[in-house]
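User: Show me a protein chain along with its predicted structure.
Assistant: Here is one chain, sequence first, then structure tokens.
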Amino acid sequence: MKNARIATKYIILFCFLMAAFTQAGLVLYTSAFLQISQQLQVTSSAVEFTLTAYLFGFGFSQLFYGILSDRFGRKKLIVIGLIIFSAACFWSILAQSYISFLLSRIIQGLGVGSCMVLSRAVVRDCCTGKDFVRAVTYLSSGFAFGLGVTPVIGGHLLDFFSWRADFVFLLICSLALLISVLCFLPETHHKIDRSIPFTSFCQQTTQNILVMLKMKSFLYCLVGGVAAYGVIIAYNTMTPFLFQKTLGYSPVAYGWLTFIIAAVYYTSTSSTRFFLRTFNSNTLIKAGIALMLIAGIIMLLGNVLFTLNLYVIFIPMMIATFAQALIWSMSVAIALKDLSHIAGTAASLFSFIQILLSALLSGLVAIPSESSQIPLAIVVISLAVIAWVSFKFSIFKAET
């Protein structure tokens, strides 16, 4: 029993690293947005759209990795995804045009998607009950780690090299993770029945997906969770040019600001494990939504009461980040808690819809001007309202 617990802890550590890696692929190069815009001779919106491209590839891949892992196992699909990501990083390093770079970002998303969806499936394989909820918060902590540390690294790399060094670093990390998975990560899905014909497996998977799409708690938690996660998408898409071009901060300074945002995210996800000892999931979600709304209003009022400066943007974003992490962790746990028998498919569908909605949001928020915080404030307020409406018609309603 003791050895099993130790093994589970090591597996959760691998899942933590895979979760961090998905965010590294997303945000490591955000400090270099201005330099990429200048070197590839494209607009700020075009550079921001490379985030959307990554998320689209990321989102589409989710639907396949999780489902296929229920048939072929988790480890093989993780390995395949990391190989694809590594090849796409090499493409980014060599890219000489915007279109080539954009395509490489799509392929990176297609590859790294295995890390996100299968980290959730692996945790679902190994943990149940409250242990599963706690494990999900560790995954959220992994997201925070990748979100915070890698932009700092990217910013410092720009002091010595060009933006391509960011993708050299990602390539090295990808290869290191690939070797570690091959050598140390065990297969956690032990209920594979290969006697079932693949066509029958596909038919059963389709039926499972249709059943989940009819589950109101699954869908409402998904929409509410994505609305909360949208705070991070909005920050990564809208603030690089707002902080660097409009407010004049350096790439290194922007990296450290993102590190602080991630530290807040990590604090929130870590605190969730302690909050759960006193409060239930619904109470934490309500508190998170209220804080998100307050943060958006403060940012909006800051435009009226003060001249544009870092604090009227950054302090409300810290509040909104703490809030969204509470909501996000709980929404994932609630959505997947009763689906352990189809963990891969459930995690796959959840991640597929989550990332595609996030990609759509990323594309939308790349359109407004980066000359003030008003668009960002409106986005945060809107996301809080969407989250409230979604949870109001699901778990809050069931509570009464």
